[in-house]
Structures are given as structure tokens and as C-alpha cells.
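#dry-run=false #mode=assembly
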Amino acid sequence: MKKFINDIDTLLDESLQGFAKAHADIIQLHTQPNIVTRSTAAPASKVVLISGGGSGHEPLHTGFVGIGMLDAACPGQIFTSPTPDQMMAAAELTENGEGVLFIVKNYAGDVMNFEIASEMIDCPFETVLIDDDVSLPKNHSTGRRGVAGTLIVEKITGAAAENGMNLSDCKILGDKVNQMTASMGVALNCCTVPALGKPTFELADDEIEMGVGIHGERGHETIKLSSASEIVEQIANAINEDLKPQKGQKALLHINGLGSTPLMELHLIYNIAAQFWEKRGIDICRSLVGNYTTSLDMTGCSITLTLLDEEMIKFWDAPVNTANLRWNC
Amino acid sequence: MKKFINDIDTLLDESLQGFAKAHADIIQLHTQPNIVTRSTAAPASKVVLISGGGSGHEPLHTGFVGIGMLDAACPGQIFTSPTPDQMMAAAELTENGEGVLFIVKNYAGDVMNFEIASEMIDCPFETVLIDDDVSLPKNHSTGRRGVAGTLIVEKITGAAAENGMNLSDCKILGDKVNQMTASMGVALNCCTVPALGKPTFELADDEIEMGVGIHGERGHETIKLSSASEIVEQIANAINEDLKPQKGQKALLHINGLGSTPLMELHLIYNIAAQFWEKRGIDICRSLVGNYTTSLDMTGCSITLTLLDEEMIKFWDAPVNTANLRWNC
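#status=ok
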């Protein structure tokens, strides 16, 4: 295993320290337990957005703490849920009378720990559960996973909260964005978790893995490597069947790199995916291309489509100033 | 070779089309020859900044076209200089009476083609040659290479031009930023150029390459894999010996991912490098961490230090609105 590390046990803490130092104008790191909050004051009275999850998906979630997005993020160990005490401490540090909106990706450990934390905090709360991954069937035993659509929910509800939306409306909006969002991933090669020291699964030189999540787990199908157009067609069809957008529907197209895929290839994927929906009369009016929800050093990408209404567009466009998503601010 | 491509011959054009479509609010793609310009009007009268180079380094340079940075970028084929007709067309499309500042990385092909272009354009011009790579000796036969420091020159001179600085002063400022900037890279694994189909050099599982450039070429030394702290120490020492910063000096620290290195590791590198200079009394007052000057899918990173004065800080902080660098705008 070749990585830039000193010690597997201190990797996360050293990295968080570097992150905090590099972005001290935007975020603040609290330790024992690890929590990232805004370094600039949020409006005195607003719904507080808290997310978190295993580390290894950077910039998700810590890179999205700041004006117009998250108030706090709880980074767990690599690919491991944060603990309830992180979430409780995050709520205590940030809550200011308007309640907490937890944004939780649908994984058993995350769901359980956020539930424990929310039962123990002493303030109003709601939870938006993200399950945008259409590579699993809707009736899957543990439900669908939350993947790259998460940041879209964080961005849109973050802007709403910043603009004074109350807790129950933020919850309704967050659920709506999640329902209007579908994602699917593909890997050319798997990632290497530092503690394991080798890829969590192997693919032959002519194989790719369709429907991967973001934790180095297998997808739903190993297939032969094919052209970018054929790969995009397969993913876009799955997303399209799930969301069933009508002609004239406005949409956000997000091409997410899983860690090791060059921007040149992500833009090529974007081009093919945009054409897929444009041919079907969909108006791709907003875009996001880059590494936003990664899986360590996995080679691959995911495609996410979010169907937009005017409210969602307004909040997507609203100012955001975080370490890794920044505009109009 | 596993990549998201349809055809090696159309990869660049398809990617540029996707880039242009995803960022139509910021940039515009012209074809035959390929040139990326701003889609929003620049101030009516300003020095025009034009850069360019081989593709495969995205987001450099196309991702830095926009308000406060470049007016145009000329993307060559992968790791291949753009042609003089691209640069001439870029100047014709953007020049508005105040002249052109060419920002050129020091590679023989780039230098030659920008020289040919500048001899043929019919307007005042100056050229800033970037040679920030300290892995080569100062008296190297073709001079030092231009690497990740390029974007720092583009950002600072871009802001100056946007604020009305004239051509000769932009040239002086650009040269100053270049002189105050030193970079060095390290690779854990090499990149795969699509046309070649395999890594341009091989490293054993316990080897790393010090002093790599951004074109998949060997560095100055193959060494055994060591801890992140030891790797950073070696690079930072080389940079420090070149720049010889005094105690109390303000500086920008830029950790650049070469393509396949997770943000978690880049932040760890940042943490170690920041400590290196802080111990020496340097005030790391500005930071940039992420994939900005890549080498396709190379696993590795580079460290760049720029010594700052108040003018440089002012222009670094000035509004910028490009596809891949955006703040205060």
C-alpha cells in the first residue's frame, strides 16, 4: 500500500488538523470528540444543520461546513459511523433555539448512532435520511444507500435554513430533494482502505463494477469494460427509470469523481449524460462536476440527477461559502 | 488501460464540450482551434491574460478562465503544447487595446509556440515564463519547469489586470510572483497517457519518485517509500533552500494533488508542511489544498510555497469566479 501517511492510527487526526489549519477562515475543528463547526457566526437564530459519516469521502461532509450549508459535521473513522457523542456535542455547540436538522446517509451504523444522539439531545430535531442510490432495489432489506446526492440535500436545505426556514419546513424540503434525486456509481478499480492495505475487491483489466457504493463494497454487477457512452447509458437509464422525469423538467446533473478519476474524464461523462437527458427533453439547467463524495482512491464516478422546481433552484443558487463548495459569496 | 473514454482521438474534444456545457455561465468554448474564453464580458479596457498548455492538467488552465483570472486558455492535446494559431486566435478574440500578457510554463514546445504566436499578433504583449520547479537545478540546460506555481501567478496577475494594472506592471508582478514561488512534486505511482495505454514509468511497491514534473516523466531520484513526514521534510527543505524565507515572512502554502491522491492525504501533507515552516518563523497566512495542476491519474502531490507581500495578498484575496477557483465573488 502506497499512501502519504505517518501512522494509520493518527491519519484521520493529522488530516483534520491540516484541514482546519488550511481553512481557518471558514471552519473550526473541535477535538475529543472530533467535530467541525463554522468559524464565522451563523445568523443568531436559525435551524442548525448537522451531518456526518465515515471519513474517506472528503470533501463530504467537513468540506461543506460554512455559510449557506452545514453548521457542523461529525467525521467518523474511515468508512465508520461517527459516534453519538460527536453528534450530541455538535448539537450542543451549534443549536440556538430553532432546532437541529440531522442529514444522515442511510447506512445502519449512521442511522443507529444519529437516532441515539437525537434521543439524548434536549432540543427539537428532525432527520432527513438520504437514500439516493438506485443501484439497489427500492425494497432492499436495509433500504437504498445515501451517496453523492447527499451534498445536494445539504446545499439546498442549508440555504433554506440560512434564509430563516423553520425546522419542519426544512425537513419537508430535505425529504423532497432526496426524493427528487437519484444516483448510481461505477468503479474501474476499487479503493484501498489504509487499515486493510489492499483493495477491498479486485477487478480484472477488462472488468468494471456497476452500482458501487462509496465504501469499497462490490456493486450489483461486474461487467466487461465498455465505452464511456455505453457505461453512461446504463447508469442514466437506471436513474431515468427511477425518477421518470417529464419533458421540460428542469434538472441538476452532478458528475461525481470517486477519487482517482481525472477531471478530463468526468467532463466527458458529463457531456454524454447531459446529451442523454437533453434528448429526452430534460432541461439540464444546473451542473456540478468534480470530486465531491469520494471513496478514498477509488477509480470511478457516479452520476446524480436531481429534478428541480423554482424553490430548489433558488436555494441551489444561494450564496455558499465552504471549503469545497463556494459561490455567490 | 481502464479509462472513461469513447475514442482516444475524440477524448479531448468530448471533454471540452462537457466542460463548456457544465460551466456555460462562466466560460465559452470556441473550436477549430480549441480556445476557452470568458462567457461574461471582461471590463471594457484591461490587459488580457492568456495561458495554455498541454491538456491532462485539469483544472489548469481552462478551469481558471473567468472574472479575476484568465481571459482565455488554449488547451493543447494531452501533454502537448497548444499551437500558435490557438494563441493567436485567443488574442484576437479577447484583446481590447491594453495588450496581452501570456503566461507560459517553461517547456520547450510551449515556449516556442507562444513565441511564434506573439511575433505574429498585432498588439502589445508581454510573457511571464513560469519555472517554479526546484527539483531541477537553476542552471539546468532547458531551465526549470513550470508546475503548480502557475495558478498562483495566474490568480495574482489576473486580479491585478482586472483592477486596471497596465501591461508592463502586470509583467513585473507576474515575474515577481514566479520568483517568489517554489514547487516540488513526488509520485507514488505514475500516470497513464491514453495514447500509450500504460504508465510511462513503473515503480516498485516500496518505491516513490521524487521531483516529478506533470507529464509522467521521471523525477530526479527514485527512493524508498517513507513516512509522510520524511517525504514532506525532503521537499520542504529543497523549497526552503531555494526561497530562503526570513523569519516573519508571510507565505502561501499550496498542496496540489496530482490526480489520484485523496484529499485526506493532501490535508495531512498540508499539516506537516505548515508545521515545517511555522517552526522556522514563517507565517503561513494563505492556503490552497486540492487537485489544481494534475498529471492525469498520477498518484502524488506537489508542495508550493509563495512568499507574499501586501500587494500579492491583496490580489490573491481579490474576487475570482472561474470553474475551479472561486471566492469573494
